[in-house]
């Protein structure tokens, strides 16, 4: 319940007045519905009684019928306004929630970001947020409006018919309805959990299958994965059927409750008439008001089967948005990049990966000057990428110090560091779009001439010219490019930023000797004054570098 309340509070805060006015109108609509039926019942019976008594001509039909019309029209208009306000406020609130979830993904620390699964993130942003529209529309607003209506109707009936009938009707609905709904929610909880799991499994399995379809096909596992997706879909459909059946059962029970309360109200009314407490028309008022109050339960029918799903979604979303933003490697508002001292200095640096006790890199020292190219070497798993990540400010150092132009990288301002240092990891992300879209990802303000020069430097000009130049289409994750071409697009994107320090993780992997040499020379000439530090396995990269530094691994 805490999770659901927290989500309702967020939705309420996003558009407080619209939500409060919508909730108020929900109450008005329910109250007018009960008053309309009660008044109509009283009117018909009172008119008939007046006719039987021979005083029909004296009976005032105008005022009650005007009131009936006012209630009928007011109720219709109120319903329209209530739907408009509550749905609009809820959808806008969900929009804020989605933005908060997205922000929490984007603000995740580097370590967490690498562990986020695309399918899970999509589930949080779509299915979970969709499930939460019911928190205000099917849970809190209808329950609050129903309770307010029962309270006001209780006071009105108490005044008109006495405490016994008023208590029978209002308490009957509040206690009886509450009991039916809470028992039904408890019984439906297991089915709701199973359905929710099936629907999350379905989405995740489907997304995994689409992403890994090539590998699955190669290993002959595509039918197996398709069967997993199909199985989750069948479980999901079965869960939906079960929940529909639960909704129907709740509907039958709530109908029986309404009939029982109305019959009891009529019986109590008849007894009161026999005892001479009030006229027969008043007995019908209680009976019809009891029938009219059935409307307070109508929006809650779907609540029991949906509650489990809403609870789970609310919990997951709360956990997601409650995750603190990135544990910063550098404090906010750090130092600017200075212009003194050697470009890059590492002094007895040790670096550990999160979750591991032993440092991956131990006591590494190096100095790299402006315009110098340094090759870092170590066996596979020896910590080359780890050093580059730390230099890019994405991993903290366990001991020692890393300095850029004389200032410790750990104290640098985030924006200043990003403007000065660019890292090209082993696997870079390419987006679906044109070659230009992918190059602009690194720097918005570049001109077509800049892009052509960078493409030339990375030996990509010929490839792009043959396929539409900057408008060449690239598929999702670099689809349509060879591995070496995708790598070169990532390199071109990085050098377009003209960083002071360029960090390259195995830059010529996947390139033949000739192209590799051409690319390394092209990059060096394009960034004459930049310091280039590269993680290298290949002899051609080591030979190209001005100096080589061997990493002593701690593992
Ligand atoms: N996210 C991570 N969490 C924990 N340990 C990691 C993580 N990534 C890599 N490691 C470990 O850190 C060590 C160094 O990895 P790193 O990627 O820096 O090596 P590398 O020299 O670049 O290797 P390669 O040449 O194969 O790319 C390895 O033992 C690796 O298993």
Overview of this protein structure:
The chain is α/β, with parallel strands linked by helices. The chain is 64% helix and 9% strand. It contains 19 helices and eleven strands. The strands form three sheets. The chain has a five-stranded parallel β-sheet with strand order 6-9-10-3-11, with helices on both faces. The protein has a four-stranded antiparallel β-sheet with strand order 2-1-4-5, with helices on one face. The longest helix has 53 residues. It is elongated. The protein starts with a helix and ends in a 5-residue tail after the last strand. The model has no long low-confidence stretch (mean pLDDT 86). Adenosine-5'-triphosphate binds next to helix 12. The site of adenosine-5'-triphosphate (ATP) has 15 residues, from helix 12. GO terms for molecular function: ATP binding. Keywords: ATP-binding, Membrane, Nucleotide-binding, Transmembrane, Transmembrane helix.
């Amino acid at each position: 319940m805490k999770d659901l309340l927290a989500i309702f509070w967020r939705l309420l805060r996003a558009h407080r007045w619209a939500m409060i006015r919508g909730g108020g109108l929900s109450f008005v609509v329910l109250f007018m519905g009960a008053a309309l039926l009660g008044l109509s019942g009283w009117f018909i019976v009172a008119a008939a009684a007046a006719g039987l008594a021979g005083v029909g001509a004296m009976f005032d039909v105008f005022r009650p019928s005007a009131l009936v019309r006012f209630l009928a029209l007011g109720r219709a208009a109120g319903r329209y306004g209530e739907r408009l306000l509550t749905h609009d406020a809820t959808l806008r609130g969900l929009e804020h929630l989605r933005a908060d979830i997205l922000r929490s993904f984007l603000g995740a620390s580097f370590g967490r970001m690498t562990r986020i699964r695309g399918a899970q993130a999509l589930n949080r942003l779509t299915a979970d947020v969709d499930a939460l529209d019911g928190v205000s529309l099917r849970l809190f607003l209808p329950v609050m409006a129903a309770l307010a209506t029962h309270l006001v109707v209780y006071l009105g009936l108490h005044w008109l018919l006495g405490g016994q009938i008023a208590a029978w009707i209002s308490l009957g609905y509040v206690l009886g309805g509450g009991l039916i709904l809470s028992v039904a929610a408890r019984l439906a909880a297991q089915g709701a959990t199973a359905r929710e799991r099936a629907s999350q499994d379905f989405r995740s399995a489907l997304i995994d299958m689409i992403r890994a379809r090539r590998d699955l096909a190669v290993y002959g596992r595509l039918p197996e994965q398709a069967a997993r997706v199909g199985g989750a879909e069948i479980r999901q459909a079965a869960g939906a059927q079960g929940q529909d059946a639960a909704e129907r059962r709740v509907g039958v029970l709530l109908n029986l409750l309404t009939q029982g309360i109305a019959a009891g109200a009529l019986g109590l009314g008849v007894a009161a008439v026999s005892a001479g407490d009030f006229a027969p028309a008043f007995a019908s008022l209680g009976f019809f008001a009891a029938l009219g109050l059935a409307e307070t339960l109508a929006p809650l029918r779907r609540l029991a089967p949906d509650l489990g799903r809403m609870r789970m979604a609310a919990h997951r979303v709360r956990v997601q948005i409650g995750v603190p933003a990135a544990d910063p490697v550098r404090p906010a508002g750090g130092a600017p990049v200075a212009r003194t001292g050697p470009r890059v200095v590492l002094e007895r640096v040790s670096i550990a990966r999160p979750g591991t006790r032993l440092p991956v890199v131990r006591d590494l020292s190096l100095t790299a000057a402006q315009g110098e190219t340094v090759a870092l070497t170590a066996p596979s798993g020896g910590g080359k990428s780890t050093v580059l990540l730390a230099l890019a400010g994405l991993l903290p150092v366990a001991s020692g110090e890393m300095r850029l132009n004389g200032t410790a990288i750990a104290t640098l301002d985030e924006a200043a560091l990003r403007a000065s240092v660019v890292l090209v990891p082993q696997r870079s992300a390419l987006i679906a779009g044109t070659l230009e879209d992918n190059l602009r990802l690194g720097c918005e303000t570049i001109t077509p001439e800049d892009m052509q020069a960078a493409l030339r430097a990375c030996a990509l000009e010929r490839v792009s010219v043959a396929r539409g130049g900057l408008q060449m289409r690239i598929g999702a994750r670099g689809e349509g490019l060879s591995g070496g071409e995708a790598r070169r697009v990532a390199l071109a994107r990085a050098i377009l930023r003209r960083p002071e320090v360029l960090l390259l993780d195995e830059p010529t992997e996947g390139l033949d000797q000739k192209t590799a040499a051409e690319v390394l020379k092209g990059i060096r000439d394009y960034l004459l004054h930049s310091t280039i530090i590269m993680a290298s396995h290949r002899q051609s990269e080591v030979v190209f570098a001005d100096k080589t530094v061997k990493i002593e691994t701690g593992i």
